[in-house]
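#structure-requests
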Amino acid sequence: MFNSLKPMVAVMALALAAPAGAQDTSGAAGGTADEILDMGQSVAAETETAPSEGPKPGERYSREKHGDWDMACVKTNAETDPCSMLQMLNGPDGQPMAEVSLFRIAQDGGVAVAGATVIVPLETLLPAALTISIDGAPGKRYNYTFCNPVGCVAQIGLTQGDVDSMQKGNEATFAIRPAPAPDQLIELKMSLKGFTSAYKAVDVVQQ
């Protein structure tokens, strides 16, 4: 590598040491090295900004953050996009294992004031149901509704008492059992940081 630079160094040395007539290729006789060599010109830094492409219809995007909650919206052609509170739950290996999407429900005299869609991995032991507890308090069990290629889904209703507990709490625990190892209990932690502000901002779904 360094040997390949020697011919260029020799050429530069000969150019600077040559008589003025021999080195004058620009019409100026004589001159300093600065006058012979191109010293370059400062160029303002150019930054290329990639065109911003927004989400396409049907795609989900994060509109804003509330603590550990995302306000996840689905792009539509309407003036406003439907949004729900979203949080990914990590498994024992630290990788995302489950998803919780929560929304408010318009009051019509029913008990449920909010609803949530919980997606857990395939091969979850369905008869064991999904157990949710808040800050170690006695939990509730919820049945799974269906499974698809994405995972198994539980569509659950939350009472005002459930919501109050989440607003006051620090952490909820989602417990599931894997079908291949039904004796094992996998606990997934859901942070309640930012829950109250996200709940106030989330959409109200009409019945």
